[in-house]
Specification:
heterodimer; A: about 0% strand; B: mainly alpha; 434 Repressor (Amino-terminal Domain); 2 strands; about 5% strand
């Protein structure tokens, strides 16, 4: 076997675990700092849980997108994305695979921005959201349209394992959430649980979707990158 | 499904990335197939068989049936 094949089966290196742990701590610290700053700017003591969750998820997505973009900017970084467990990262990555990683980066970053935008605009507008709301909404719609185009481009370029992972995640998400939402809506109708806003529901959906995507990808043996 | 993909790949001294490039799929797709976490589609099965110039049954076997080499 050529050198590099043992790396494909090698256990995750301790250094990689440390790097990922530190990255997670950094993302958490940035998320906490951002939420604290925003709530202080708005004079809000108790930020709604959905806004906290949305910002936390948004910062994670944005960080993942920026990190993937940074790695996909050069040859060594692309090799790391293609095979994080390889013993060396000298192997060139094909142009189509490089484009795939760059699309992933753009999708992740844009998802983070779209999820954070309504919360940030509401907080920063300090009660004047009705004045700038339509303009911000236009930006959200434009961003969502771009996100849709990028997702379709990624779907066309990915292989059957990725497509099956995406499809399975979507199916699992639908079956889980339709049950949860039905039960909660029934409870809300019967006044046994409190009402939730659509933003609460969307944030819960995003969190569950991301969790399920990690589980499904892990079952398929797909690593980050 | 059981498969001999790793063995056949090793005989040709191809890495997973090499095989992925030849088949038009990612390295991780090859890893998923080799470790039994993904059953390839019919299209990919035929592509694999064409690449190794072997019948599909010589490379893949259902889990409930024990694998045996086909006589030449």
């Amino acid at each position: 076997m050529k050198q590099g094949d043992m790396g494909e089966e090698a256990p995750r290196s301790f250094r990689l675990v440390i790097v990922m742990t530190l990255l997670g701590l950094l993302v958490g610290a940035v998320a906490g700092w951002t939420i604290g700053k925003l709530s202080k700017a708005a004079g809000v003591e108790n930020v709604p849980w959905a806004d906290v969750a949305a910002l936390g998820i948004a910062i994670s997505l944005l960080t993942g997108g920026l990190l993937t973009a940074a790695l996909s900017a050069d040859r060594r970084g692309l090799a790391i994305l293609a095979n994080p467990r390889a013993p060396d990262f000298s192997r060139a990555v094909s142009p189509s695979q490089a484009l795939f990683f760059r699309l992933q980066a753009a999708i992740l970053a844009l998802a983070g921005i779209l999820l954070a935008a309504p919360v940030v605009v509401e907080v920063m507008s300090k009660g004047r959201v009705t004045q700038i709301g339509p303009l911000a909404m236009a930006g959200v719609v434009a961003g969502f349209a771009l996100q849709t185009v990028l997702n379709l481009a990624l779907w066309r370029r990915c292989d059957e394992v990725y497509r099956q992972t995406i499809a399975e995640t979507g199916a699992a998400c639908f079956w889980l959430l339709q049950g949860v939402f039905f039960l909660w809506a029934s409870g809300e109708k019967l006044k046994v649980v409190p009402a939730v806003t659509s933003w609460d529901a969307v944030t819960a959906m995003m969190a569950i979707y991301l969790l399920l995507s990690l589980i499904v990808a892990s079952r398929r043996g797909l690593e980050w990158g | 499904m059981q498969n001999r993909l790793r063995v056949l790949r090793a005989e040709r001294e191809w890495s997973q990335a090499d095989l992925g490039e030849r088949l038009g799929v990612s390295r991780q797709a090859i890893n998923a197939i080799e470790t039994g976490k993904h059953d390839p589609s019919l299209t990919l099965l035929f592509r694999i068989a064409d690449l190794f110039e072997l019948p599909i049954e010589a490379i893949f076997r259902p889990d409930e049936r024990p694998y045996r080499r086909l006589d030449p």
